[in-house]
Amino acid sequence: MCAIYGAHPAHNLRLCDIAARPEQRIGSTAGKNPANVEGVELMAVVDEFGRGLRDVRVSVTDRCNFRCTYCMPREVFGPGFQFLERDELLTFEEITRLVSIFAKLGVRKIRLTGGEPLVRHGIERLVAMLAQVDGIDDIALTTNGSLLAGKAADLRGAGLGRLTVSLDSVDEETFSAMADVPMPLCRVLDGIAAASAAGFAPVKLNTVVKRGVNDAGVVDLAAYARDHGHIVRFIEYMDVGTTNGWKLDEVVPSAEVVRRIGAVWPLEPVDPNYVGEVASRYRYLDGGGEIGVISSVTQAFCQGCTRARVSAVGELYTCLFATKGGDLRALLRNGATDGELESVIAGIWGRRTDRYSELRTSETRTLHKVEMSYIGG
Ligand code: SAM
Ligand code: SF4
Ligand code: SF4
Question: 241, 324, 354, 368: which is deepest, by most CB within 10 A?
Answer without folding.
Answer: 241
